[in-house]
Structures are given as C-alpha cells and as structure tokens.
Amino acid sequence: MNANTPNMKPGHRKSVLAKTTKYPVVIAGPCSAESEEQMLKTAFGLKKLQGVSIFRAGIWKPRTRLGSFQGVGTIGLEWLKTVKQETGLLTTCEVANASHVAEALKHGVDVLMIGAHTTVNAFLVQEIADSLRGVDVPVLVKNPVHLDLPLWAGAIERFYHSGIRDLGAIHRGFSTLDNAPYRNHPKWDQAIELKDMLPDVPMFCDPSHIAGKRSLLRPVSQRAVDLGYDGLMIEAHYNPAKALSDPQHQLMPQELGILLQVLNIDGIDA
Ligand code: PEP
Ligand code: MN
C-alpha cells in the first residue's frame, strides 16, 4: 500500500453504496442511449423493479470499427436528465475524456464510469482525474480490456490522488486468447486479488460484458453475489432485438426482474 492507495475507513465511506439502500446495488439500463423514447420506456420498466438504483446508458461508445454506432453524444445526456427527473433513479454514463466529464457534470449525471478501453490509457485516466480535482462525484473504474491488475489499481489510485473518495471498481472480464464460453473471461481469482489489493473500494460486477449472451447472465451474476460483490451492472433495453449495440445480451426490464428474483441474494427486494 502506498500513500495513493484508497484506504477509506468504513465510517468515511461516502460511496455510491451509501446513496442507495438496496443490496446489491443494481445499475441497469441500455448499452447505448438511442432515443428519448427508448430511454424512458426502459427506465420506467426498470423503476418498477424495486431492486434497481442507478440507470446507465452509453452516450459515447468506444467502438472497434469506424462505421459502428458511436453513440448519440450530448443529446443523450438530456435524455438521461429526463430519466432522472421522471423516475427519480440516479444516473451514470461512461466518460472517456475531460470534455465528456464536463458535459456529464453539466447535465447532472450522478456517477461517472471509466470504461475498459479508457482504463488501459494512463495518460487519459490522468487527464480525466485532473479534470475532477475539487469535484465531488462518485467514479466507477472498469478493469482494463486485458488482464493487468496494476493498471486497474493504478487508475483507481489516480482518482484517489485527485481527491475523489467515492470510488468503485467494475469487473467486466478480460479479453484473453480463449474467452469461451464468455465474451470476456471473468478470471474471478484476479478480480478477487484486486479486492484484496483495495479492500475499501466497493466491487461491482458487469455480467453483461463478461457473458456476452443472455444465457450466461444468471451464473455470472450468482458467482459475483456469492463472492460478496457490492453491486451488479446489467444492460437492459425495452426492446433488445432493436438495440443499436449489444442486442445479444441486453434484457428486457421484466427479464431483469426475473433474474434478480431467482438470484440467491439476501436482502434484495426486486
Ligand atoms: C459499457 O459498459 O457500455 C462498455 C462500453 O463496456 P466496456 O467498457 O466494459 O467495454
Ligand atoms: Mn454494452
């Protein structure tokens, strides 16, 4: 442990977890914001599930190939604001540079997320962390695309060093040469190692991007709960077949409700 290692004492832990009363904290919403109608239909469906605390939507999408849907950009933040006003759900989106941060904060996004493709880039993480000096906002940091625990821990430490005390880690699996049957191999032992390295940082699981398919969401989510993760982030869309990104693993809100019900979780109220 060094001076930059997050070591918030439990009593000081003013985390996203503290803003929510449910266990585990469930973050849900579409992979991408596509239209105001899609956002509101999905959000009202999720609001009905008592277990969902935070609504997510990708505004800027890091895509591999040019020509893929790159996200709607700033207009999506207006829709996110409407979701918050209409449903009372907290909101989160991925930010991948300092101007995204400024836009997201201007639109009242409650929780910022650093995506796997950003965590890999220490310069970019530092630029984002610098832009957050003096700002009081929770930041959730996904693991980098490939297995590199120091890079993941280092990104979290950069935010801590910038004064962010409300931090969380999101385990979204690692791209390996042999991912099967997953989209990104969970390598649970590695995520547990990060938990051990940063015991005061709440750990979320992103079963959607680990699984890449609906059929694996339940076992992956159950494993995370069994391992004592603090929260789950699961992608949901009112009509997954029409989704502009990740149609293969998004759940309809009612399907997410069923998943939360069948998970063996003490205390969830879904
Ligand atoms: C996402 O959660 O929308 C996303 C892009 O995931 P990742 O950063 O894990 O690839
Ligand atoms: Mn997605």
TrEMBL record:
Its EC number is 5.4.99.5. GO terms for molecular function: chorismate mutase activity. Keywords: Coiled coil, Isomerase, Transferase. Signal peptide: none annotated. This is chorismate mutase. It comes from Pontibacter silvestris. The chain holds residues 1 to 270 of 364 of the full protein.
